[in-house]
Amino acid sequence: MIQRIQSLFLLGVILLSGLLYFLPVYGFSEMNQAAVNPEATGVVNDLTIANNSLLLILDGAVAVFALLAIFLFKNRNLQMRLCRLNILLTCVLMVLLYFAADTLSSGMNRQIHFRYGAYLPFFQLLFLYLANFFIRKDDELVRSADRLR
């Protein structure tokens, strides 16, 4: 049911997962260039999650579970469990995203620059939390209506 607010939040999670595939997450610049010429701190290369298969799989799983949760509107308990699982997967995605960036930059003479794609999982986490909140609110409303019968 797309007209419900939690479905719109879950649809937002799916769109952000798609954007995360295309948008650069982080970039690197050489440290020795910055020391010699301060204006030469331009980013050498941008990396997306398509370069890391584990991040790509996690992002795809987040999108699939959010899509599945949209169509499970009749089973609110399962929908809430999927949202909580999705919150956990998004947290793992965020940790691995920043861990991979730190690992790639350490040991080399590089400075890391987080791009705008690195902040999309925070918005996914917010949308998933709000979707779970509104699903729980709907469930409480239905249970209160059942008590009145």
Report on the architecture of this protein.
With 149 residues, the chain is mainly α. The chain has helices spanning 5-22, 31-36, 53-70, 76-105, 120-148, and strands at residues 26-30, 45-47, 110-114. It has a three-stranded antiparallel sheet with strand order 2-1-3. It is elongated and about 70 Å long.
Q: Gyration radius, to the nearest Å?
A: 20 Å
Instruction: Work out the helicity level.
Output: 55-70%
State the total count of DSSP E strands.
3
Low-pLDDT stretches are none
The helix count comes to 5
The portion of residues forming beta strands comes to 5-15%
Shape: elongated
Structural class: mainly alpha
How far apart the termini lie comes to: 25 Å
Biggest sheet: strands, sense, closure?
3 strands, antiparallel
Present the secondary structure layout.
Elements: H1 5-22, E1 26-30, H2 31-36, E2 45-47, H3 53-70, H4 76-105, E3 110-114, H5 120-148
Antiparallel strand pairs: 1-2, 1-3
Helix pairs in contact: 1-3, 1-5, 3-4, 4-5
What's the short version?
The chain has 149 residues and is mainly α. It has helices at residues 5-22, 31-36, 53-70, 76-105, 120-148; strands spanning 26-30, 45-47, 110-114. The chain is built from five helices and three strands, in the order αβαβααβα.
Spell out the key features of this protein:
single chain; mainly alpha; 3-stranded antiparallel sheet; 9% strand
